[in-house]
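User: Before I run my own analysis I want an independent prediction to cross-check against. Here's the chain; please return only the structure tokens and, at the end, one sentence I can use as a sanity check.
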Amino acid sequence: MRGKLMFLTGLAAGFVMGSRAGREKYEEIRANAQKVWQHPTVQEAAGVAQAQANKLYTEGKDKIQSSKLGEKLNTTGTSSTDTTDELLAPSDSFTSSKSTTTGTTY
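Assistant: Structure tokens:
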């Protein structure tokens, strides 16, 4: 109960401060956040994190395919190449959607 009360208090305080600051302050915060996100160091760190996530995804996918569950999935009539073609890495779907939104700023 105490956690809910603290959450609601924080929500109310954020609403009041946000409404007092207005749209101008929001735009300032958004512009600063955009500058930080586009900083080369941040982009490099994001690239490293994405590469690590892709590596972990591939390793996990390989472990599942070589496990008993993967063997069961492969014996249901689909070959392993069909299964891997149907599975997309998270970066694959993100990259394709990202390329369609090029030029859009958030």
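Sanity check: Confidence is low (pLDDT under 50) at residues 82-87, 92-102.
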